[in-house]
Each structure stands twice: as C-alpha cells, then as structure tokens.
Specification:
Length: 250
C-alpha cells in the first residue's frame, strides 16, 4: 500500500508495567503466550508488541505492552467484555489475573491514536520491520499540538532513517489528554546503529529535533528489547501452541 493512501483506523492500549523482583521474563511470557491468544479470540485484540525496558535508560524493572484494537468501537466492546461484571474482571480470567498479580505491582496505561500514515502491526511485520533494539519516546507538548508534531515527526524522521537505519515504526497521540502528548517508537537494526546515532545526537542536538519544537515541553527516550514472543520477533501473533511451561494452564 502506498503510504499516502494509508489510513490507520486502529486504536492502541499502551501499558507501562512495574515488575516485581526478577519476574520480568515470566510476566512477558504470561502476556504473550497466556493472555494474547485469549484476547485475539474473545476480543479481536492484536498484540502489537511486548518489550522489556532497558533499565539503564529508564525506571526498572519495567515492561511495555501495546495492544491493537479495532478502533474505538472495538475498544468499547473489549471494555464491555471485561468490565460488565460485579468484580470488574472477566470471571473466566480469575486464574490469569491471580497469576499476573504475582509478577507486577501496577502500572500506567494510556489510549493511543495512530498517525494516519502509521502501519498497523500486521503491515509492519509484512514489511519486514525488525531490530535488535527499539527506542520509545514520550513527548510532552503544548495542549493541542500533537497532530502537528506527528506530521513534523514524519518528515523529520527521514534523516535518522537514511543516516542510521532507524525506522519510525510507531507514531501516536495520546487520547483523552488534550492532544498534549505523543509516543514514538523507533525500530533500530543493531546496537551499533543505536550507538552511532546517540553519538551523533550528542554532538548534533538538532538532528533529533523533528519539528514543531516550540510546542515541545519535554522529551524522554528510553530503550526496549522485544520479548521472546513479541510479534516483531516471531513475525506473527502469539498462539496457544507457544505455551510450554507448567504455569501456562489458565
């Protein structure tokens, strides 16, 4: 599909999860092998990606999950499915919730609206998008500036792509927040490509400015690595057949 013809009508759930102790690997497995097949079957929810946060670049230990929903209507159906019970949880998932509670202490979620030109997860995988590392960028903006910032990011990203091979895979504005926040996801082919870009960004700060800079209040970039069953690594959605451990029975 020509990029100019693309209209991404999905909506995304972005979860930043605080992990208890040394449970990051267990939690990532629990979300991909145990949860995602259920979400696909019962809610039409696709796993866009699950990543472990590189602790030296952000708070630790943390995991980022991003889920792809069929627009706001699909998200509403998913919420209704989950919250239409006295417990505000799907009773069929009681065991799953109990197990997850042993791995995480809480987190912070947001709803994301993609830039129209952003590829869906399936389109990105079909195009061969993959990398050893990803950069997650949280941009705080003047209220109302998010659409303009995403347009500027699209144009400004070309220098990072041509020079270092970084791909601007994800580009979203945060819903329900006054168009005052954007989230970007860069896919970086190798650790060397990350290091070369960081050296250049340190020496040439203007290289990382993607436009609309008067609207930018703060930027925080941190690194993430794909979970073993994250779609960008396995090139497909997680499946029940990926369950290999005793704690998979949920």
């Amino acid at each position: 599909m020509n990029e100019s013809d693309r209209v991404n009508e999905k909506v995304y759930i972005h979860e930043l999860i605080d992990i208890i102790g040394q449970n990051r690997a267990r939690y990532m497995y629990h979300m991909t092998a145990n949860w995602s097949p259920i979400g696909q079957e019962e809610r039409g929810q696709q796993c866009y990606g699950v990543w472990g946060v590189v602790g030296s670049t952000a708070r630790w230990p943390q995991v980022v999950n991003i889920w792809e929903e069929d627009g706001f209507d699909g998200l509403a159906r998913s919420f209704q499915h989950e919250l239409g019970h006295d417990t505000l949880q799907d009773p069929k998932l009681a065991k799953w919730w109990a197990q997850a509670a042993g791995y995480r202490s809480g987190g912070f979620d947001r709803i994301l609206v993609p830039a129209p030109w952003m590829r869906t997860g399936a389109e990105a995988i079909a195009d061969g998008v993959a990398g050893e590392v990803h950069a997650h960028v949280q941009v705080q903006l003047r209220p109302g500036a998010a659409p303009e910032y995403l347009a500027a990011a699209h144009d400004g990203s070309k220098a990072m792509t041509s020079r270092f091979g970084w791909q601007l895979t994800g580009a979203w504005r945060t819903a329900m927040a006054g168009d005052a926040e954007c989230i970007l996801l860069w896919t970086i082919p190798t650790w060397h490509a990350w290091a070369e870009a960081e050296k250049a960004l340190t020496a040439e700060p203007g290289l990382g400015r993607l436009g609309a800079e008067l609207d930018v209040l703060s930027v925080h970039r941190f690194l993430m690595v794909d979970a073993p069953l994250s779609p960008f690594r396995i090139r497909r959605q997680p499946a029940r057949s990926d369950r290999t451990d005793a704690y998979s029975e949920v």
